[in-house]
Amino acid sequence: MIGEAMPPLEEELGERKYRAPALEKGLDVLELLSSHGRPMTPSQMSVTLKRSVSELFRMIQVLEFRGYIEQSSEGYRLTNRLFTLGMAQAPVKSLVEAALPAMRILAETTVQSCHLVVPSETQIVVVARVESPGDLGYSVRIGYRRNLIEATSGRMFYGLASPAGRARLEEVLRRLHGDAMFELSPRRRTPRRSRATLSGPAISSRA
Asked: What percent of the chain stands above pLDDT 70?
C-alpha cells in the first residue's frame, strides 16, 4: 500500500482543549492525499479515513474550490498550493537563494538540468530547479514528491543519515510500505561514514 492515513492528532498530543471537527476532516483529506502519493476517489478516501462519503463531500468540494486539490481522471490529487505557501517562508527562501548560484554552475558545467530537494517526512520534494543550458533537457517540476527510498536523492538522504536518523526513518517506512522496500543487498544497505543528517537538502540531476 502506497500510503495510509496519518494517526489521529489526539493520539500524538493527548487530550486537547479545543476541537474543530470540520477543519480536522479537511486536514485528514490533505494528509491522506499527500501520504498516498496517487489520486484517490471520494470512496477510497472514505474507506481509508473510516468516514462516510457524505461526511467528506463538503470538505472535498471546499478544498477543490480553494485550490488545494484538483480532480483528475483517476480521482482527486493535491495541487501545489500548500507547497507555494510553504515556499513563502523565510528559511526555505534562504535555502533556495543560497543554492541557485551553485545549481547554475552545475547546470552549465554538465550541460544538464538539476534540481534541489529536501526531505519531507517519508518523501522528497523538489523546491528549486535550473534548466539545462543546451537545446534539449530533462527537468523535474517544482513541488514534485516521491517516496524517499525510491528516489536517487532520497536514498542519499537515507544512506548518509546518522544511525539514529536512519533507524527512525526505516521504522516509519516499514510501517507504511512493509519490508519489501528494504530487500537490498548487504553492500547497498551499508551507508558510507558521514555526519550528514536527514534534515539537509540535496542537489541532484536525477529525481
From this structure: 75
